[in-house]
Amino acid sequence: MATKNDGNTGRLQAELKKRRPFESPHQEAVLNVLRTNDQFQNKFGRLFRHFGLTPSQYNVLRILRGVGKPMPCLDIASRMIQVVPAITGLIDRLEAQELVARDRCTEDRRVIFVTLTDKARKLLDQMDEPVMGLHRGLVGHLTQAELKELSRLLEKARERVESVEIPGDSPQTP
Amino acid sequence: MATKNDGNTGRLQAELKKRRPFESPHQEAVLNVLRTNDQFQNKFGRLFRHFGLTPSQYNVLRILRGVGKPMPCLDIASRMIQVVPAITGLIDRLEAQELVARDRCTEDRRVIFVTLTDKARKLLDQMDEPVMGLHRGLVGHLTQAELKELSRLLEKARERVESVEIPGDSPQTP
DNA sequence: TGCGGATAGTTTACATGTAAACAAATCGGC
DNA sequence: GCCGATTTGTTTACATGTAAACTATCCGCA
Q1: Structural domain tally of chain A?
Q2: DSSP one-letter string for A62-104
Q3: H or E segment at B94?
């Protein structure tokens, strides 16, 4: 479809009802990522809610199933995109739903292993098909080549994230 | 920091691989969008924090500046990605910082116009350069062609979002 | 042995995002 | 003119996400 023109006046601009074109293709690309994410997240959030889960809760369960054995809290946190302290409450609520269990490690009493319950395993199995269906529904109209290229570009976009310095920020020296 | 989606998708993909040679690039693309967004959001969040703003607050101010005149709350909400009730608190805090003002419309007393203050305008002007810098920093290593293609693919990905039905959900009739 | 620092989790404080219920004001039809 | 539906915004309840401070443990090393 050659309806794309040479100017960078895209759909996002129309959606946001902006009056002026984007100041740079950089900005346009970044905002496109943010907006696409929001719309995807919204759909997944609703799907998960039908199963009584929030996106974060589903994420934790998927991570635990993927690893296949109990994990310390911080290991879970490191696989989530976000940071630590939220994990506590997250695990609390999953525990209240009997989807995970906490076991304190005997060798290192600081560590608490989080274990997936059978109930959670069944729930996840039940969700697999709808989740895959939503993935296909969201991007199934892109060609295989487009999907591959999209993934490649996003991976490339993330290559520099770690080293990007925030203007006005004092550089971190970990 | 894992740059590949190895962990949380591993088992499902492995299971599917056992049965089919086909691996879903749909899932990969969707997860790439989510992960890229998280990393970008994180950077912008830190930048905004240096100026005493949250991402949502900055968004509201940008929208108000873009429109150039007072806006009703719901008009602002409709341009934000998210939904209505959060706007109230958002405006509350911006008002407390004297970055916006509320004016009740005399003709339709239900409507409350939100106005940008001079203080906010100065703050935004001050932020323009760092924000653009961060945009460039995040995706500046992609070529112009890649940026255009990335935006095109993301826009195409969003084309179907509205019509995607959530598996197990009763269809929406807004 | 025992201290200082590092590590694993938790708690607290605050800003969001989502859903549901609600109040105030306006509009439409009769 | 009046009643009910609609529109606009707010409130309430709950789950996150972020930062900072705190607790319990463990580890290295003198």
Answers
A1: 1
A2: HHHHHH-S-EEHHHHHHHSSS-STHHHHHHHHHHHTTSEEEEE
A3: helix B86-96
CA distances from A144 to A133, A148, A157, B66, B74 (A): 16, 6, 20, 38, 39
Residue A18, H or E segment: none
Mean pLDDT of B7-20: 39
pLDDT of residue A98: 96
CATH code of the domain containing B84: 1.10.10.10
Reported as a single tens digit per residue, the pLDDT across A1-34 is 333 333 344 555 555 555 455 678 999 999 999 9
Is A84 within the bounds of a domain?
yes
Residue B25 and residue A63: Cβ atoms within 8 Å?
no
C-alpha angle B63-A19-B94 in degrees, rounded to nearest 5: 10
A129 pLDDT more than 90: yes
CA distance A35 to B34: 10
| Measured distance CA(B60)–CA(B53) in Å, rounded | 11
Tens of pLDDT, residue by residue over A79-102, are: 886 777 889 999 999 999 999 999
Nucleotide nearest to A56 (CA to C1'): D16
* Chain A nearest-CA residue for B6: A66
How big is chain A, counted in residues? 174
Asked if strand C comes closer than 7 Å to A66 Cβ, the answer is no
